[in-house]
Amino acid sequence: MHEISLIESIIDIVLSEMSKNNITKVSSISLKIGKMLQVMEETLRFGFEIMSQNTPLEGAEIIIENTPVIGRCKNCGNEFQIDDWFDSCPNCHQMCVEIISGKEMEIISFEGY
Ligand SMILES: [Zn+2]
């Protein structure tokens, strides 16, 4: 259930940004979540609902954008999107791929008043 720690950090970050921007209530939060994190959207939304209770984030809408997993071939340097864990490089067909994107969680923006 690593969703819980993700939610904790989302709430922490938004709370500290709110105080900097004189916002007292948050209405929506836009997130970018790398597919590789394998976050269960339903779990994230439900967990957020529970964990944001009695905070200024309570009731905020969560907007999730999934970012694709991008790998780079260690053999030829080709960068490509990975849809399957066993994908090989489309250029040289080697299996030595390093993941360069798709593991991150980012708060794009949030709205409030
Ligand atoms: Zn390659």
For the report, how would you describe the main beta sheet?
A: 3 strands, mixed
According to DSSP, the number of beta strands is 6
CATH class wording of one domain? Alpha Beta
- The class by helix and strand makeup works out as alpha+beta
- H/I helix tally: 2
User: Overall pLDDT, averaged?
Assistant: 94
Q: What is the rounded distance between the termini? A: 31 Å
- CATH second-level architecture of one domain: 2-Layer Sandwich
Write out the strand line-up for the largest beta sheet, numbering strands in chain order. Answer: 2-1-6
Low-confidence stretches: none
Strand content: 25-35%
Radius of gyration: 17 Å
| Helix proportion | 25-40%
Encode the helix/strand succession as letters: HEHEEEEE
| Structure ligands | zinc ion
Approximate shape: elongated
CATH topology of one domain: hypothetical protein PF0899 fold
Question: What keywords describe this structure?
Answer:
113 residues, alpha+beta, hypothetical protein PF0899 fold, 6 strands
What would a concise description of this structure say?
By secondary structure, the chain is of the alpha+beta class. It has helices at 3-20, 41-51; strands at residues 26-34, 61-67, 69-73, 79-82, 97-101, 105-112.
Describe the 3D structure:
The protein has 113 residues and is an alpha+beta fold. It has a domain of 77 residues: hypothetical protein PF0899 fold (2-Layer Sandwich), CATH 3.30.2320.50. The protein is 26% helix and 34% strand. The chain has a three-stranded mixed β-sheet with strand order 2-1-6, with helices on one face. Bound molecules: zinc ion (ZN). The site of zinc ion has 8 residues, from loops.
